[in-house]
Design goal:
- The protein is of the alpha+beta class and 264 residues long.
- The chain is 48% helix and 6% strand.
- The protein has helices spanning 3-19, 55-59, 67-79, 101-105, 107-113, 141-161, 178-196, 201-217, 233-255, and strands at residues 38-39, 51-53, 84-89, 95-99.
- A 4-stranded antiparallel β-sheet has the order 1-2-4-3.
- Helix 1 (3-19) crosses helix 3 (67-79) and helix 6 (141-161) runs antiparallel to helix 9 (233-255).
Length: 264
């Protein structure tokens, strides 16, 4: 699920709570404008949630409620949504959201179906940039994203050579490892993150290289590791994930004006 889809879910929950009297009538107008959801910090040990939102802290003063009281009502409504697996409310009113596996992995087909536009600026179309070998310095921060892109291309080539295919019936809900969850959430968040920092080259570059770092941390096999063993459904799911991350890195590099080499 994307941040926009999460906002729509939250708006639906708030409107329903207003209709039943759990929230003031003003809640039907929806939460404040601007980004509401951000990925959980992957550096914090023990983190299991996918997204966090300070919406209750920002919204409560506008509808004359305490942040924690508003957060509790929103959390109760969110737990009734089919796409939500768990919701936690901190004493400050911060809400942490964990999605069902199928809802989290739905970002993969969305990226693949919109691969010429996803994570690009509005009105911008994908175009392949060609870069001369050795034109970037070893310590260039963009190089890490280029290396991650090339690694994913190699993983995809090897998986396809081993007979792993991209079936429409692939169960993407099998992408449940922590590293895969972090990647799926980062894919969903990148367009919002890039849009938030338009004009800030440092933050734009950091957004792309952070995704590259998550891609490098993901080392689950995308093809059988034993000769003679047939590919399993999870291999097909991982192949699609690798392709989606490759697409987003390629588009992110294009947005930075950098090429996305398939081999390095």
């Amino acid at each position: 699920m994307t941040p926009e889809q999460l906002r729509a879910l939250l708006e639906e929950v708030a409107a329903q709570a207003a209709r039943t009297g759990e929230l003031p009538d003003e809640a039907q107008a929806g939460p404040p404008a601007g980004p509401l959801f951000r990925p959980t910090d992957t550096r914090v040990a023990g983190v299991v949630a996918d997204w966090v939102t300070p919406v209750a802290q920002r919204w409560a003063p506008q509808i004359d409620l305490e942040p924690r009281d508003l957060a509790r009502v929103l959390a109760q409504g969110l737990t009734r949504q089919k796409s939500v697996a768990a919701v936690e409310v901190a004493p400050s009113g911060l809400i942490a959201l964990t999605l069902e596996d199928s809802a989290r992995s739905a970002i993969v087909p969305l990226v693949i179906d919109d691969q010429d536009h996803y994570a690009l600026a509005a009105g911008e179309h994908r175009h392949d940039l060609v870069e001369a070998p050795g034109s970037r310095l070893v310590n260039d921060p963009v190089r890490s994203a280029q290396l991650a892109h090339a690694r994913l291309c190699r993983i995809i080539r090897n998986a396809e050579a081993a007979g792993v295919d991209r079936r429409p019936s692939t169960r993407l809900g099998e992408l449940t490892h922590v590293a895969e969850r972090h990647l799926l959430v980062a894919l969903a968040d990148l367009p919002q993150r890039l849009a938030t920092h338009v004009g800030d080259e440092v933050q734009q570059r950091r957004a792309v290289t952070d995704l590259a770092a998550l891609a490098d941390a993901w080392d689950h096999p995308v093809r059988p590791t034993v000769v003679g063993v047939h590919p399993q459904p999870v291999h097909g799911a991982r192949l699609l994930l690798a392709d989606a991350v490759r697409i987003v890195l390629r588009n992110g590099l294009a947005r930075l004006g950098a090429a996305a080499p398939e081999r390095m």
